[in-house]
Amino acid sequence: MKDITFNEARHRVDELQELLWQYSHEYYVLDQPSVTDEEYDQLYYELVTLEEAFPELIHLDSPTQAVGGQLLEGFEKVAHSTPMMSLDDAFDIEELSAFDRRLQRLTASAYTYTAELKIDGLAINLRYEEGELVEAATRGDGTVGENVTENIKRIRMIPKKLTQAIDIEVRGEIYMPKRSFLELNQARELEGLEIFANPRNAAAGTIRNLDPSVTQRRKLSGFFYTIVQAEQYGVSSQDEALDLIEKLGLPVNQEHTQLQDIQDIVDYIEKYQEGRQALPYDIDGIVVKVNEFSIQNQAGFTARSPRWAVAYKFPAEEAET
Ligand SMILES: NC(=O)c1cnc(N)c2cc(Br)sc12
Q1: Which of 19, 36, 78, 136 could serve as a FRET partner for 161 with CA atoms 20 to 30 Å apart?
Q2: 116 lines ligand 1 (CB under 6 A)
Q3: φ and ψ at residue 124, rounded to 5 degrees
């Protein structure tokens, strides 16, 4: 940092604090960030650097102090063992049928589907060694995520120890139940703090907070649905994988089901498009997968997503009046 006077530093620190609070507001409350994460991080590190050079400029309301007092640099990066892919979207039944027709061209073998609720939360990768939780990482850009182990260890629903002392990686979604979300926003309003726009942002804002005591205080939960290299664990279908995940002690969403064809899937979609308001957590669609791993392996992946799965997306819910 070039030599600057105390006054120049004071002016720049005030400017940075103002900017970073505004950007945080846009990201967590309005869900409309006006800067990229990289731009935010750059300004954040400039502020941390200035505050380290001029400690008398550190104000308790500085964004760098929002993490429980210590000047933490940020999360370590974690390279995922295999990419955390995203899903192709389908917005209507015709697109779902096109997905099925593409699959039928890819294989002559018979196959079934599994349908699972698409949880509106934050994707997470958990690594267990000899049954002990050793690392939790966010999806990040799909190949590199953030090490959020200390936060995830403070979620009661996430087992720190599996029922079997094995090495395994599982993937799922961390979410904030609707009731926890309402309670959190009521408390924040009473404290004059900004409220979160939706449970997904509240979950993400909690998990990405550098102070683990924040996660401790907020009631998050999770559902798990993928075993990395699942066939090494003697399972040959998504249905069997979900059973094993549950047997290991991880929470599995019970609404999953095995279906024969697209018409069954249409019925399942209609059931949850209507019934999702009654669920205690937000969903933003249905994930449809080929059940048999042998067929998944035949179908393979495009650059960004599996050919053997699709996310049927529900229309965005009208903002609650
Ligand atoms: N059950 C599932 O596979 C599932 C549920 N909820 C989600 N948000 C996601 C995202 C991917 Br990618 S898969 C998946």
Answers
A1: 78
A2: yes
A3: -140, 145
Rounded to an integer, what distance in angstroms lies between the CA atom of residue 43 and that of residue 57? 16
pTM value is: 0.79
User: Does the complex come out with an ipTM higher than 0.90?
Assistant: yes
DSSP secondary structure string, 6-75? HHHHHHHHHHHHHHHHHHHIIIIISS--SS-HHHHHHHHHHHHHHHHH-GGG--TTSGGGTTTTS----P
For ligand 1, the distance from its centroid to the CA atom of residue 223, given in whole angstroms, is 9
**Structure letter (DSSP) for residue 317:** P
Protein residue with least CA distance to atom 6, ligand 1: 118
DSSP string for 177-236: -HHHHHHHHHHHHHTTPPPPSSHHHHHHHHHT-S-HHHHHHS--EEEEEEETTGGGGT--
Mutate which of 82, 119, 227, 228 for ligand 1? The one with the most ligand atoms within 8 Å of its CB, which is 119
- Chain segment 132-169, per-residue pLDDT in tens: 999 999 999 899 999 999 999 999 999 999 999 999 99
